[in-house]
Amino acid sequence: MSDTPSPAPARALFDWLGPILGAVAIVIALAGQLGFEGRVRAYLLENPQLVQEMVQAGQAQQAALAAEETTRRAQANPSLVAVDPRDPAFGPADAEVTVIEYFDFQCPGCKAVAPEFLALMQANPDVRFVFRDWAILDREPGGTSDYAARAALAAHRQGRYLPVYQALLAEPALSPETIDQLLVENGVDLARARADMDSAEIRDQVADIDATAQALALQGTPTFLVNGRATESIQPAAIAEAIAAAKAR
After folding, report:
1. What is the rounded distance in angstroms from the CA atom of residue 102 to the CA atom of residue 114?
2. Residues 186/155, Cβ–Cβ less than 8 Å
3. Residue 220 DSSP symbol
4. Would you state the CATH architecture of domain 81-248?
5. 64: pLDDT strictly greater than 90
């Protein structure tokens, strides 16, 4: 993202540096109460789970704050979460609940939750699921994430988006060559796809997805929004709960 840190490094920084600083602050406070560092050190060595608990609490707090900010921005500017006609979208166009996923095909978290997320999609045929291919892990044109995003969008033009989405996220080590192979294996006309991938329309679409992600202050992938509300967790169970809550409103 130009000269500013990209969302992926920024999220990693917040995920680890914040909790560590919080843990240090608690240690300092304990040191003041107990009188000397040795006793604090001994206490933490006897109870190492406390550090992990502090880190987890810090991460949960950061996720909640990030989700709150994204939700605030979406509510202030609903166009950011309006379904773009170019978006791969599945489910009724007039659905009462819409789920948007921002993801990167190289993102380990995206790969981990994809099977359950697709199962969740099948279990909710009355929900509209929207996919936004946000290439952030290598943002330069021609990078693998960028290539995969454009390839999937080209596959969408041939009605093969979901098979390609599933295949790309199931592949542990993507490259332009493996992406081309997966396109062909999933019924995509490669020559046509390559022409579409290089078109101004698809390149503009990838750029527009990046712009909306930045406008929503997204911190990384995957990010899920249910009726314009960002979820704090990426776990499919949490997405299912958010869908159920949206249906009940």
Report:
1. 12
2. yes
3. S
4. 3-Layer(aba) Sandwich (3.40)
5. no
